[in-house]
Amino acid sequence: MQKLMYLVRDAATTDGDALRQAILAKAVPAIRACGGREIAVFAADRDVAAGKPVRQISPPIRAFVSFWLEDAADRGPAEAALRALAQGLDGYLVVESRPVVHAMPKGERTPGMKQISCVTKRADLSQEEFIRIWHEDHRKVAIETQSTFGYVRNEIFRALTPGAPTQWTAIVEESFPIGALTDPHVFYDAKNEAEFKTNFKRMMDSCGRFLDHGPIEVTFVSEYYAG
After folding, report:
1. Would you say 97 and 140 are in contact if contact means Cβ atoms under 8 Å apart?
2. What is the rounded CA–CA span in Å between residue 50 and residue 202?
3. CA 20 to 30 Å from 183, out of 108, 160, 197, 198?
4. CATH assignment of 2-225, given 3.90.470.20, 3.40.50.620, 3.30.70.100, 3.90.580.10?
5. CA pair distance 150, 200, nearest whole angstrom
């Protein structure tokens, strides 16, 4: 089985709810028909509109879709269905790991919100050291300094679509309580200002050890698990 992850790009003014509904109604059946399993749709819809994304590519990322196939070579119909719904589509074959597993009610919106970040390895680090810091040192920091209840790493193995951005090393999914969307104290699991500052600094220092923040993209989304 191989995991595929697609970035659905469209204008910032595109109705996120309409895009989500179109993906669920039109693309998900096509994905399922070509053998897709464990299908998840992540949309920048009205439920997360209060978030402040970091957008550097144009058109911006408005949704993500991930699923598993026995063979990525069978992705054609799924990819075509997704491409028909937006201005741009970037697909990647990824390697998944789940340091924190969360419940995803099938056919419903997962409670809370999800922050999905496209991140890049520091150029001065070897791949081995990057993985060691991220998977060992940073895992503990991320869990201890944030209100994260779900954490999925998607290390990019290769691009699947022509012209897909090549600057990113991984796509990271983090699930938070909905309050974290607008309240940094909730995001950093802090009971007071002193704890917030401590957790924030610890997190930023840890990220700085292995990430190049220059090309980062951060998108806030609602998660819908289609199974």
Report:
1. no
2. 25
3. 108
4. 3.30.70.100
5. 19
Structure tokens of 91? 């697909």
**pLDDT tens for the 227 residues of the chain, in order:** 999 999 999 999 999 999 999 999 999 999 999 999 999 999 999 999 999 999 999 999 999 999 999 999 999 999 999 999 999 999 999 999 999 999 999 999 999 999 999 999 999 999 999 999 999 999 999 999 999 999 999 999 999 999 999 999 999 999 999 999 999 999 999 999 999 999 999 999 999 999 999 999 999 999 999 99
Length in residues, the chain: 227
